[in-house]
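Dig into these lines:

——
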Amino acid sequence: MNVMDLWSLQGQLLLLLVVGAVLRRTGLFSVATKAFLTDFVIYVTLPCSIVLSFMMDIDLSVLRSFAIVLVVSLAIQCFCILLGKVLYRKQDRRRRSVLKYGMLVSNSGFMGLPVTQELYGAGGLMYASIYLIPQRVVMWSAGVSCFASEAVSWKQALRSSALHPGMISVYVGMVFLLFHLPLPRFIEHTMISIGSCTTPLSMMLIGSIIGEMDRTQMRVDLFSLIYASIRLILIPLVTFIGCRLCQVDPLITGVSVILAGMPVGSTTAILAAKYGGDASFASQLVTISTVLSMLTIPLWAMVM
């Protein structure tokens, strides 16, 4: 993808965010609509895209690449946990929980998968699906414990992760990958049509979250900018340097860097409200990092 195509893609994503925000502000995008479309993306369109990304010929190098992706993802998660513990231990409890969770859990699932697919195609989406396995496990265990240490057990965390629609899609995709199972053409084309809705719906849903923020949540201060810079620049930079030093495959490096540079996860505000964290502050971080990612993501894509 050349520079003009990249900026065209990013402009498209930004415009989809604006459309979602406008629809939410005008009331056409109601709370019920947002809930329905969120479930539709998670349970229908995204699984179709993930399953299709595994429809390829397999050899030993593919399985080896899966292992490398998992190792890279685990290393990034450990680094994010360390950052959260070191940088924000002196913050008050309500903000500390938000800061640690936002550092640990990015929007790499809801926003990262469609962006990765647009940048790197089906192969990139397949690697991205594997990359997200450690984050989903950490999200439901160490992530939730940032807000309430007793809120979830390891058994609950593993069960929630194992039964996540994205994980189930990976299981199904792996079956097709390992056994070379063909799909009837009409089913494959139907899944392609449904999966193609993932990117526009995902971006409009994120835009709707931004659209329902009030002015206080849109406030930009130095602390929020520094935090967003760590999430959007430092973490992917460390990922990029680490992958280059270890001579990781360029495609895996590109996917890992793009996903590592995703904004603060939208679940940060949801869990903050549920477990007594600073929900307004969490919404502010989600909004600022999401808007800034419209600049940093294409920059990282050009570096790749």
Remarks:
- The CA atoms of residues 227 and 271 lie 19 Å apart.
- The radius of gyration is 19 Å.
- The chain has one domain: 50-192+218-299.
- The first helix runs from residue 3 to 26.
